[in-house]
Automatic annotation (TrEMBL):
Membrane disposition: Multi-pass membrane protein
Signal sequence, start to end: none
Species annotation: Paenibacillus cellulosilyticus
Name of the protein this chain belongs to: ATP-binding cassette subfamily B protein
Domain of life of the native organism: Bacteria
Compartmental location: Cell membrane
Domain ABC transporter: residue ranges: 54-288
GO CC list: plasma membrane
Keyword Mitochondrion: no
Length: 293
C-alpha cells in the first residue's frame, strides 16, 4: 500500500516547513523529478490534450535489489474507464499504479498513454494529467482555500466553491466562521480523516485531470462519511480514466472492470457480475471477505 507514497512522502517532508501553497506545488514537481533514474527524454512531448487510453505491455519490474514484483504484465484501460485492482496484500497493485506517473520505470516493457510511450512525454505533461488521491491525505498548514486551490493559481472563488460542493465539503466550510479562509493544520482547525479526504477530492475536482489514481483507505470511516466520500469519488471518476487500488466492495462492484492481481500476475479480469460467478480467485475472495462486510 505504501508504494505510491514513497516519493510523495519525501515531498511531504520537504513541504512541511513550506506553507506557501502555490510555490509549494512547483517545488512538488521539482522534488518529484529528483527521484533517481527517472529521466525525461531530450525532445519530450507535451500533449495539448490527453484522452486517457492506457496500455501496459509486457511490464516487468522489481525494486532495486529485490526480486521482480511484476513479470510480463499486460493490460489496457480505455479512456474514461474505471478499473479496480484487487488481490492479496503485496501482490503489486500499488506498484502497477506507481509506474504510470513514472514514480518508477519498468525494467522491461512499455506503458503508453494515448498511444505514446510515457517515457517520451515530458514529466510535467504526464503528471499534470494524472491526479493521485491517496489514503494518507497530504494537507499543509494554511487555509482551506489554499489547500483546495493547491497549485492552481487562477482558481476563482466560484470554482473553488463548486469543487468543494462536488467533494461534499462545502457544508463544513460554510459552518466555519472564516469559511474558505479557515486555517487548518497545527495552528488551526483540526480536520477529521474524512474531512481531509474530501478536501483532497475537492482539489482534484479543481485540478480536473483526465486520469485518476485512487488509493482507497483501508481504515474504516463512519458509515455516513464513507457514503459521502464514495459519492464524491464516483462523481470524480466519471468521464476520467480511473485506476483504483480497491479495498471497498462498493467501489469494486461499481467498477467497469476488475483486474485481479496475484503474485503470479493478473489472474483474471472482468466485471464483478462475471467474476463472482466464476471459480477464480475473485469469487473466493468475495465469499471469504466481502460477503460479511
Ligand atoms: P497492498 O494490498 O498491501 O497495498 P499491493 O498489492 O499494493 O499490496 P505493493 O505495495 O505493490 O502490493 O507491493 C508489492 C511488493 O513489492 C511487496 O512484496 C512489497 O513488499 C514490495 N515493495 C513495495 N515497495 C517497495 C520498495 N520501495 N522497495 C522494495 N520492495 C517494495
Amino acid at each position: 500500500t505504501n508504494l505510491l507514497y514513497q516519493p510523495i512522502n519525501k515531498l511531504n517532508t520537504a513541504l512541511e516547513s513550506y506553507t506557501k501553497g502555490v510555490a509549494g506545488f512547483k517545488r512538488y514537481l521539482e522534488i518529484i523529478d529528483e527521484v533517481p533514474d527517472i529521466r525525461e527524454a531530450p525532445d519530450a512531448i507535451n500533449l495539448p490534450s490527453v484522452r486517457g487510453d492506457i496500455h501496459y505491455k509486457n511490464i516487468t519490474f522489481g525494486y532495486e535489489g529485490h526480486a521482480n514484483v511484476l513479470s510480463n504484465v499486460s493490460f489496457s484501460i480505455r479512456a474514461g474507464e474505471t478499473v479496480a485492482f484487487v488481490g492479496p496484500s503485496g501482490a503489486g497493485k500499488s506498484t502497477i499504479c506507481s509506474l504510470l506517473p513514472r514514480f518508477y520505470d519498468p525494467g522491461q516493457g512499455v506503458i503508453t498513454l494515448d498511444g505514446i510511450d510515457i517515457k517520451d512525454l515530458s514529466l510535467n505533461c504526464l503528471r499534470t494529467n494524472i491526479g493521485v488521491v491517496q489514503q494518507d491525505v497530504f494537507l499543509f498548514s494554511g487555509t482551506l482555500r489554499d489547500n483546495i486551490a493547491y497549485g492552481m493559481l487562477n482558481a476563482g472563488e466560484a470554482e473553488i466553491w463548486e469543487a468543494a460542493r462536488r467533494a461534499r465539503i462545502d457544508d463544513f466550510i460554510r459552518s466555519q466562521p472564516d469559511g474558505l479562509d479557515t486555517v487548518i493544520g497545527e495552528r488551526g482547525v483540526k480536520l477529521s480523516g474524512g474531512q481531509k479526504q474530501r478536501v483532497a477530492i475537492a482539489r482534484m475536482f479543481l485540478k480536473n485531470p483526465p486520469i485518476l489514481i485512487l488509493d482507497e483507505a483501508t481504515s474504516a470511516l463512519d458509515t455516513e462519511t464513507e457514503l459521502l466520500i464514495q459519492q464524491s469519488l464516483d462523481e470524480l471518476s466519471k468521464g476520467r480514466t480511473t485506476l483504483i487500488i480497491a479495498h471497498r466492495l462498493a467501489t469494486i462492484k461499481n467498477a467497469d472492470r476488475i483486474i485481479v492481481v496475484t503474485d503470479k500476475g493478473i489472474s483474471e479480469q472482468g466485471h464483478h457480475n462475471e467474476l463472482v460467478t466464476g471459480n477464480g480467485l475473485y469469487s473466493r475472495l468475495y465469499t471469504a471477505q466481502f460477503r460479511s462486510g
